[in-house]
């Protein structure tokens, strides 16, 4: 590549890093790419690092030494997350979302890639420090959330199916009771979809008592896998604590009430915003 | 926001534009954001524009006048797409992918967000000029491709379901014959999921004769919607031209043979790479 001026190099390096989160990029990669001295590259990175931090985009971690380099860790500040989630809660409280049976219509919100990416960034921020091999979800509505999260963590995605497709090869199936329907349902995962002893992050769009997530956990035992975390977009607050099948999870929003008659809905930020104080930046 | 130096401003503007494709951003937005003169902003944009074009990231379109501004149009050059697709074809030809029944296992490839994003960029490049309101797919494996495409086009996604979920409200259902199973299947879409007379881009992971895509087209008639394009990741070349139910589509790869006995698989770049010459940059 031809030698670039600092200004062009900064644009180039910014996009290069943004599209390669959680990957160690040796300084020599940049030095060779731009025919520049490593010292110039280091100065560029210092500028990028400062903007990324100020803007709440994430950290640039620099590792010194022969095996060193730079790694972009996407990170959205808690106060920005809270602002976004408050906006989503407001949308979710619109009266016309009440469906027969007291269900809440949220498919349109999950159909907006911009929102999905922000949610993915929140999960990626929270679970960044854990040693995870793969992000898992069950079809259908959790899929975009799982991909967005995995994209920011630079991890692959595994989708648990509700049927057993012939195009997936041999599979492990389990039965579970879904909290919302109280019916016995089946979920299955192809043998070759997940290596044994994988470390797994479970992501889903909605959780009541946790029957589906619990089902995924049982399925994972068949693969000798370890669950490293559970993240759900919306949890139902209408379930008693004793009914909960899953203990350790984070939720971004909490649905505390849907009144089918008055069409009054109450949604508030989830337990993700409870634990710590919001002073983290 | 405090006044930034040009170097920091370039990093900031680069990330701002990359995360907001196909959105018109008035120059005043940047001028106010950085307390800078519009002339400085224009100079910055010229630098960013040049790097984006040289790097094959896309175009920065500048619209003059009071309602003017700048718009980032993600665009991956055809030769880069071809290189990526050739790599994917090579992976798809691995012998161990042959499943009983002559099916091809490709779930692992569709589980990699980095690949999904590149495929989404290809579809977004091809369909960028068309007047589209929404990207549509049918569950399950097309979903990440649809979201990636929609993300680069700044459009919402609508997912057609294979069942009729109570949590979606009233829905329109149709029956169709899937090419691969030759069975009658059902697909449905919630009434409130799609406005009437929408202009729709259909994205899917695999197409044989096109029964599923054709089903989606029939379903769309019920919504008085117009199909503005069809993009599939892999098409089967084992179908006679006369059997094709869908005429106008683009495919990124073409599966021309799976031999269950010898485990020999042949995959080549799809019709996306046939039409035009590759001299486009």
From TrEMBL, chains A, B:
UniProtKB keywords: DNA-binding, Transcription, Transcription regulation
Protein source organism: Paenibacillus swuensis
UniProt-recorded name of the protein: Purine operon repressor
Domain of life, source organism: Bacteria
Gene Ontology biological process: negative regulation of DNA-templated transcription; negative regulation of purine nucleobase metabolic process
Entry annotated with the keyword Transcription: yes
Residue ranges of every copy of the Phosphoribosyltransferase domain listed in the record: 111-237
SUPFAM superfamilies assigned to the protein according to its UniProt record, in alphabetical order: PRTase-like, Winged helix' DNA-binding domain
Any Pfam family matching the protein: PuR_N
Subunit structure: Homodimer.
Family: Belongs to the purine/pyrimidine phosphoribosyltransferase family. PurR subfamily.
GO molecular function: DNA binding
InterPro entries: PRTase-like, PRTase_dom, Pur/Pyrimidine_PRTase, PuR_N, PurR_Bsub, WH-like_DNA-bd_sf, WH_DNA-bd_sf
């Amino acid at each position: 590549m031809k030698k670039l001026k600092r200004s062009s190099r900064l644009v180039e390096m910014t996009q290069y890093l943004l599209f390669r989160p959680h990957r160690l990029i040796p300084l020599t990669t940049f030095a060779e790419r731009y025919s520049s001295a490593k010292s110039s590259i280091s100065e560029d990175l210092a500028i990028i690092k400062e903007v990324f931090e100020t803007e709440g985009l994430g950290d640039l971690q620099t590792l010194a030494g022969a095996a060193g380099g730079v790694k972009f860790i996407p990170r959205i500040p808690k106060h920005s997350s809270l602002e976004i989630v408050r906006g989503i809660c407001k949308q979710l409280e619109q009266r016309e979302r009440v469906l027969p049976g007291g269900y809440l219509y949220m498919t349109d919100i999950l159909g907006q890639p911009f929102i999905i990416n922000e949610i993915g960034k929140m999960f990626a921020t929270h679970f960044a420090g854990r040693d995870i091999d793969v992000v898992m979800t069950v079809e259908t509505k959790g899929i975009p959330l799982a991909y967005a999260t995995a994209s920011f963590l630079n991890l692959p995605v595994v989708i648990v199916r509700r049927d057993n497709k012939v195009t997936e090869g041999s599979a492990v199936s389990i039965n579970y009771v879904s909290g919302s329907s109280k019916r016995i349902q089946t979920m299955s995962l192809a043998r070759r979809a997940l290596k044994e002893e994988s470390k797994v992050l479970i992501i889903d769009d909605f959780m009541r008592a946790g029957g589906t997530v619990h089902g995924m956990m049982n399925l994972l035992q068949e693969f000798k896998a370890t669950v490293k975390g559970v993240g759900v977009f919306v949890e139902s607050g209408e379930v008693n604590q004793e009914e909960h099948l899953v203990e350790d999870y984070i939720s971004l929003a909490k649905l505390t009430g849907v009144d089918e008659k008055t069409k009054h809905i109450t949604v508030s930020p989830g337990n993700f915003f409870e634990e710590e104080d919001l002073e983290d930046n």
